[in-house]
Amino acid sequence: MKQLDAFDKALAEFDRRVHQVKDEQWSAGTPCTDWTVRDLVDHLTSEHLWAPLLLRGATLAEVGDRFDGDVLGTDPVGAWEQAAAESKVAFHRRGALDGSVYTTGGLTPAAEYAWQMTMDLTVHAWDLARGIGADDAMDEDLVAMVYDGAESRIGDWQGLGIFAAPVDVAESASTQDRLVALLGRRP
């Protein structure tokens, strides 16, 4: 699967769940123990507000704190839709994945940044589905690609506070269950 195809599928997976959130579910818990459904959607919305600026070469200092705090306002779904649409356009801009972007980890190849965003969308689509009691099954090709990438990087992430420690699952577990377990969630 090509990088942008995976990004688009992951974006669609998360978007589908955002559109399933009922009014009373915004304060529900998620597998991300410190985050409610609203916090989780706010996190992804903020990340996707950053993306167009970073992909155009902005530094972290130039972006500053403009996306700190609640970026959802009174229309969480609308805020997500706008951020996602602008992010998708930015990632699809000709040459967007050829350069580097500034991230908290330093100057990062844009293709790696796209992969990180794809992974984040994928695992958080599962988190959001669990938080609202929706179907958590995701595109199998996407899950396989994200699992392969995460498995090769997980050692670098341990101790950074990015994910909880991996959870043991049976060898016979599905790729999706192995992915979420690898990223510290109980399938």
Describe this structure in words.
This is TIGR03086 family protein. Pfam families: MDMPI_N. Residues 8-129 form the Mycothiol-dependent maleylpyruvate isomerase metal-binding domain. It comes from Actinomadura alba. InterPro entries: CHP03086, DinB/YfiT-like, Maleyloyr_isom, MDMPI_metal-binding. With 187 residues, the protein is mainly alpha-helical. The protein has a single domain (3-134), classed as Four Helix Bundle (Hemerythrin (Met), subunit A), CATH 1.20.120. Helices cover 56% and strands 4% of the residues. It has seven helices and two strands; from the N terminus they run H-H-H-H-E-E-H-H-H. The protein has helices at residues 3-18, 37-55, 60-63, 76-92, 110-132, 140-157, 175-182; strands at residues 100-103, 106-109. Strands 1-2 form a two-stranded antiparallel sheet. The longest helix is centred in the middle third of the chain and has 23 residues, at 110-132. It is globular, with a radius of gyration of 16 Å.
Helix content: 55-70%
Q: Assembly state here? A: single chain
Q: Rounded to an integer, what's the Rg over CA atoms?
A: 16 Å
Spatial order of the strands forming the largest sheet: 1-2
**CATH top level label:** Mainly Alpha
> Uncertain runs with pLDDT below 50, 5 residues or more?
none
Outline type = globular
Structural class: mainly alpha
Secondary-structure element string: HHHHEEHHH
- The DSSP helix count reads 7
| CATH superfamily label | dinb family like domain
Span of the ends, CA to CA:
25 Å
CATH-scheme architecture = Up-down Bundle
User: What is the domain tally?
Assistant: 1
Classify the fold: give the CATH topology.
Four Helix Bundle (Hemerythrin (Met), subunit A)
